[in-house]
What does this fold into?
Amino acid sequence: MTPDLRARLTRIVGPAHLLEDPDTRASFETDWTRRFTGKAPFVVRPGSAAEVAAVLAACSSAGQPIVPQGGNTGLVGGSVPRSGEAVLSLRRLDAIEAFDTVAGEVTVGAGVTLEQLQHHVRPAGWDVGVDLASRASATIGGMVATNAGGVRVIRYGPMRHQVIGLEAVLADGSVISRLPGLLKDNSGYDLPGLIAGSEGTLAVITRVRLRLIPARPARAVALLGLPSLDAALEVVRTVRAAAPGLEAAEVFFPEGLELVLRHARISPPFPGRYPCYLLIECAGPSDPAPALAAALEPLADPAATLIATDRAGRDRLWAYRERHTEAISAEGIPHKLDVTLPAGRLAEFEASVRTALARACPSARPVLFGHAGDGNLHVNLLGIAPDDETADDVVLRLVASLGGSISAEHGIGIAKKRWLNLTRSLADIHAMQAIKRALDPAWLLNPGVIFDPDSFAPPVPRLP
Ligand code: FAD
Ligand code: MLT
Ligand code: ZN
It folds into this structure.
């Protein structure tokens, strides 16, 4: 860092929030999976949107690239430095403001964690439409930046669908603000919709206005052991049609359950081993358990079916699913591939990906789980070196051949940018690069994430 930039940043955020010491920087430099790590010249922690704007203006004039960071729970390597980027931590933007308890809307700072917001709005009868296991650390800004999905997409959609407006700072320090509180506003391009899912490459999100959902305290969770993923998908179709308020339909398999039992030190849900496990949650204004039990009756084996309605019982069943991520990471450093398939091809994918991996990369240990209701499987690969991408290539090409997407909810980040053209056309990629160039001409915001300036360039025409 140049002395001039250090002096400017110190004036903006104060010396306590400009971290240069390697020990204090360390937790900002390695991602949650431990697969991605790099050195940042400094970490800067602004405390307001105005400070974010001033920091970006200073970095922009110094040509200093930046990685925006929220809770650092991202799973594709996009929240940590790679080659000289400084970390811009948004965690101090943690104010919860303007909670409209009648309309069910709230404005929050980008650094508010999902769990803080849940605790704030639930007592007033509202909830956040997106929920995920990283709720204690994931920030609202990071969730919008990644367009996070989570366990309730089947009912409420991903994070982009919850966003009514946002405030964000562009690379040069200028502030765009769409926090209108207007029900209708078609005055030009939808910038919040564009920034949601842009993974910190277009703008730094500072405040978000979210639409809330009514809290539904009456809940029932069922966990079933089933003979196959096909059978699980059949149960999901039946419950969707017959039981009201389906909120989650999650699957996992014996290899993942075994890791959860071992690392979380919990007992199996029921005796016996099943090829596939399905967790279903229904919620509504009144107890959904009777309708859920009736819908499950013709399809479920009573010896492998548990239903819980009280909080502790529901949490116990959810633990088998939610603790997969930490159990896999306790086993090793995984490659995490988060893919989505057309609903009709999900079961075919699950079977073929195991066969294809066993043939091409016998050392890879796949651990699959995911959001069955959304066609979204998480393919975790243990037993391979962090930089060996052979197995990733096998999985992602198979996904593309079945009409799927190489990222369902985690984003492209660093981990998957090599394969972006498998499921996005060159025209798409060039349009995205043009938008990036227009908003960040010097390519200073999260450079290297999603694509590079010259990735997938059109072939240069040969002169005759
Ligand atoms: P970070 O990890 O800090 O950053 C993620 C990306 O967003 C980076 O590219 C970063 O540059 C950018 N970014 C962060 N903040 C901002 C900002 N204010 N402005 C602009 N860009 C920003 N994800 C799901 O989608 N569904 C799940 O079910 C899910 N479950 C998870 C469970 C566990 C146990 C863990 C560890 C992760 C899980 N994730 C899940 C992944 C992760 O929690 C989400 O991607 C989350 O949205 C990241 O939020 P964050 O604040 O940690 O962002
Ligand atoms: C989940 O669904 O639990 C997450 O997306 C995290 C993961 O993929 O490990
Ligand atoms: Zn997920």
Remarks:
- The chain has a mean pLDDT of 95.
